[in-house]
Amino acid sequence: MPAIAVRNLSKKFGRKLVFKDVNFVVKRGEKVAIVGVNGSGKTTLLRILSGQIKPSAGYVEIFGKNPYMDVELRKKIGFLSHSSHLYRELTAKENLIFYAKLMGVDESRVSEVLKLVNLWKARNDLVRSFSKGMEQRLKIAKALLNDPDILICDEPSDGLDVRGREFIRNYIKNFNKTVIISTHSEEEIRLCDRVLGFRDGSIVELSR
Ligand SMILES: Nc1ncnc2c1ncn2[C@@H]1O[C@H](COP(=O)(O)OP(=O)(O)OP(=O)(O)O)[C@@H](O)[C@H]1O
């Protein structure tokens, strides 16, 4: 069974068609980049894959199940997005404890992920004092709380400096499970096994 199977997927917002009849399969352990011009539908596709929003037609299966309908399945998905929410008046650790409780994850995992993203020393600092790079690392920590089998990242290094970008890339490179990222970065594309591109509302396999 593949990690991701997308069949005849279409998404409309009101009367606006974003994409139509999108088909692709991602094998377990594969790293796939999604590319396309601004507004082509990358974020929308990733939100459907992570079970946040419903397709208009067609279906998505993650490990053979529907992410929109299956709460347990969503626990296996780590989603790093621009809209990942952090509480700025709480510390890094307090944020992660809050989300760990929400996800039903053991609190001991909070220390693990803080160390993993190099935020252990800053664990008791308020998020409002964090740089953009630190915030992004904390969002990664949040996405990893449930030790996901699939990592879905929406433009993960957008707006980060060289060190921040390097951290994210190393992380993605060394993540040994399935990864799907939307990106405009050549370096991130090179980390991936395959590249899928949005073109005129459908998706095509691109050679690298
Ligand atoms: N909730 C929504 N309601 C209405 N339209 C939306 C909504 N979300 C996205 N869209 C529209 O769907 C289209 C695709 O947007 P999306 O954010 O998926 O593109 P993208 O490829 O991720 O763009 P970017 O590279 O700028 O992040 C855009 O025209 C956008 O305005």
UniProtKB/TrEMBL annotation:
Belongs to the ABC transporter superfamily. It comes from the Archaea. Residues 4-206 form the ABC transporter domain. It holds the Pfam family ABC_tran. One of its GO terms (molecular function) is ATP hydrolysis activity. The keyword ATP-binding applies. This is ABC transporter domain-containing protein. Keywords: ATP-binding, Nucleotide-binding, Transport. InterPro entries: AAA+_ATPase, ABC_transporter-like_ATP-bd, ABC_transporter_ATP-binding, P-loop_NTPase. The keyword Nucleotide-binding applies.
